[in-house]
Specification:
The complex is a heterodimer of chains A (494) and B (124).
Chain A: H1 3-52, E1 56-61, E2 66-70, H2 80-87, H3 89-98, H4 101-104, H5 109-115, E3 119-121, E4 129-137, E5 141-148, H6 150-174, H7 176-194, H8 200-217, H9 220-236, H10 241-258, H11 272-284, H12 287-299, E6 300-302, H13 303-320, E7 325-330, E8 334-336, H14 344-358, H15 362-367, E9 374-382, E10 386-393, H16 400-409, H17 417-424, H18 444-454, E11 458-464, E12 468-476
Parallel strand pairs in A: 7-9
Antiparallel strand pairs in A: 1-2, 1-5, 3-4, 4-5, 6-8, 9-10, 10-12, 11-12
Helix pairs in contact in A: 2-3, 6-7, 6-10, 7-8, 7-10, 8-9, 8-14, 9-10, 13-14, 14-18
Chain B: E1 4-8, H1 12-24, E2 28-32, H2 35-43, E3 52-56, H3 64-74, E4 81-85, H4 90-98, E5 101-106, H5 111-122
Parallel strand pairs in B: 1-2, 1-3, 3-4, 4-5
The chains are: A alpha+beta (494), B alpha/beta (124).
């Protein structure tokens, strides 16, 4: 073959190859275009679907990075943490800490997911709440679903407010007298929580007392709001204006619906037993005493109605904590409204303590050789110059060693019994390690002590390990003679 | 080989619940009432090491996180721990994680979950 033919052949071959290559490229480009078109169509279709559902969705990988396809409503973000941080910085911190646990396999995905924030507040419009759901997808991918639950929550809140209003109406219908008292009490407490110039301690106590009064009265929504404020306060270290505003709003929502009932009452109530006692007295008592007795029916309140509320509260609390109790009450006396006005609202703290910390669960009682049903006695006595209120339980008794530890940890004296009793009444000294809706932060007893001190009374506690606790509050009558003891520090322990 | 679990909680009820669940699942259990007690138990020389620790966070004397930090300083390797908490905070859990916590459960929790997690941490 000549060189020339050789070149020609090579040229033909080359042009053939070029032709073929060109054809392949064309075919490939077409295929690519078709593929790109179908991908684009798929993508457009997916986006259309994403855009038409209310939930916003995005898929995150194990390292937190996000896949390209996402709901158009979601803002751009570098990764899942940055995305959540755009809404809620605190929730994003949670996700940074907990994200890798989702894939660690120690706990099932759902169990870890449950412990990450399920609701986030949209920082860009704070009245909006989003529910955040995580679903595990194949290949260590997580589908995040964000749903606006603001409306649903508002509906829930309205239902809770309705329940609260019904509880107050129920009280107004059955016990007008108590209703008026409780209404004014809650009003005063809400003001005190906000009070400018009051110390943080005073406001925290007022908040705690408000929570107690609310739950005794069946205002569960208000009680829950107070609890949430306490929670927020515990994690941040102080009460914020927002926390207080939530509490005020919760009360005012109920208040507007029942306020008109406060001034409605123009009757004097008495029980049949009181009526009979009055008839008997009319026959034998001197005139002056009789007048006093009749006046008392209008001016003084029945201690029993207060104590019955506390008993209901104790039973409900025991039910919630899987404990069995019999509540025995004895309070068939009338008490001038002013004398114990400051004590009633905080008395629930003593009851909470007895049920929450004193009374053991049935198993523990059985193991200790006790009746599985605990006994709680709440009594109010008139001792002439003073009133004596006692709350007695046959529970596990106070763990004085634990109190001593807590007292020392708080830098308080813990040498004598009196030191220990005093320590029980100091803010933040609780022997419990968990704060429940009812008690555990050590604020309750300090609020009680403050109220008793203000009324010029004193508290004594007797408690034996395994046998029970006897809590006694002595308050002098305001009309006169015989103030007991000194300040509330006049306490006894046994 | 029988796996050993250390249960650290100041609540007798929780210790009983967790203890029963773990023993029913074949674990041998040791209980401690707070961080100080737990520290004594993990560092006492007679005790074989623990395969898993189930630990409350909020306890008197020494809390659960301090205990984990202290024990990982004293022992060569950190303990594999599952934390039990009532209210969890990211900063708190971050500290726990660095001290060896492998997971956490919010009270109240299902016993089966805890047992499954404890088994996973112990390995085969």
């Amino acid at each position: 073959m000549s060189v020339a033919t050789g070149f020609a052949a090579a040229a033909v071959l080359a042009s053939c190859t070029a032709l073929a290559a060109g054809a392949v490229v064309v075919l490939l480009r077409r295929a690519q275009r078709r593929h790109a078109l179908s991908l684009e169509a798929e993508r457009a279709q997916s986006l259309a679907i994403l855009a038409s559902v209310d939930d916003a969705m995005v898929i995150a990988r194990r390292d937190g990075s996000l896949e390209g396809l996402r709901s158009p409503s979601l803002p751009e973000a570098a990764d899942v943490f940055a995305l959540i941080a755009l809404f809620d910085e605190r929730a994003a911190r949670w996700f940074r800490v907990g994200w890798s646990d989702l894939f660690a396999g120690t706990l099932p995905f759902d169990a870890v997911a449950q412990q990450l924030p399920a609701r986030i507040t949209d920082a860009r419009s704070p009245s909006r709440t989003l529910a955040l759901t995580l679903r595990l997808l194949p290949a260590e991918r997580v589908l995040l679903i964000l749903r606006d639950v603001t409306a649903a929550l508002e509906k829930e809140m309205r239902a809770a407010d309705d329940a609260d209003a019904i509880a107050v109406l129920d009280l107004a219908a059955t016990e007008k007298d108590l209703f008026r008292q409780v209404f004014t009490e809650i009003d005063a407490l809400v003001v005190r929580v906000r009070e400018w110039g009051a110390t943080e301690e005073v406001r925290r106590r007022a908040l705690h007392t408000l929570k107690g009064t609310a739950s005794v009265t069946g205002l569960t929504s208000l009680a829950a709001t107070c609890h949430a404020a306490e929670d927020a306060c515990a994690s941040r270290g102080s009460l914020t204006s927002d926390d207080i505003a939530h509490v005020e709003e919760a009360w005012s929502r109920v208040r507007v619906r029942v306020a008109s009932l406060v001034s409605l009452d123009d009757r004097v109530e008495m029980t049949v037993a009181e009526h009979e006692a009055l008839l008997q007295a009319a026959a034998i008592e001197p005139r002056a005493a009789l007048v006093r007795r009749i006046r008392s029916l209008r001016e003084d309140e029945r201690a029993a109605q207060r104590v019955e509320r506390l008993a209901d509260h104790a039973r409900a609390l025991a039910g919630r904590t899987d404990k069995e109790i019999d509540v025995v009450i004895s309070a068939d006396i009338r008490v001038p409204r002013d004398d114990l006005a400051g004590i009633w609202p905080v008395l629930s703290h003593a009851v909470n303590n007895a049920v929450d910390h004193g009374v053991e669960p049935p198993d523990e009682r059985r193991a200790a050789g006790k009746d599985t049903r605990a006994r709680l006695e709440i009594a109010v006595r008139d001792e002439g110059s003073r009133f004596v209120i006692s709350v007695i339980d046959d529970g596990r008794g106070i763990d004085w060693a634990a109190v001593a530890d807590k007292a020392r940890a708080a830098g308080l004296p813990a040498a004598t019994n009196a030191d220990l009793v005093a320590a029980l009444f100091v803010d933040g000294v609780s022997t419990s390690t968990t704060a429940s809706t009812t008690s555990g932060r050590g604020v309750g007893l300090s609020a009680l002590a403050a109220a008793v001190k203000e009324a010029g009374g004193c508290i004594s506690i007797e408690s034996s390990r395994g046998i029970g606790t006897r809590f006694e509050i002595v308050v002098p009558k305001k009309d006169g003679a015989g103030a007991p003891g000194g300040p509330y520090g006049d306490v006894e322990a046994a | 080989m029988i796996k050993r679990a250390l249960i650290v909680d100041d609540s007798l009820t929780v210790r009983k619940q967790v203890g029963n669940a773990l023993r029913n699942a074949g674990f041998e259990t040791v209980e401690a009432i707070d961080g100080v007690d737990a520290l004594a138990k993990v560092s006492s020389t007679n005790e074989a090491r623990f395969d898993v620790v189930v630990c409350d966070v909020n306890m008197p004397n020494m809390d659960g996180i301090q205990f984990l930090e202290e024990s990982s300083r004293q022992l060569k390797a950190p303990l594999a721990a599952i934390m039990l908490t009532t209210e969890a905070q990211p900063t708190m859990m971050d500290r726990a994680r660095r001290a060896g916590a492998k997971g956490w459960l919010l009270k109240p929790f299902k016993a089966e979950l805890l047992v499954a997690a404890a088994k996973k941490l112990c390995g085969p």
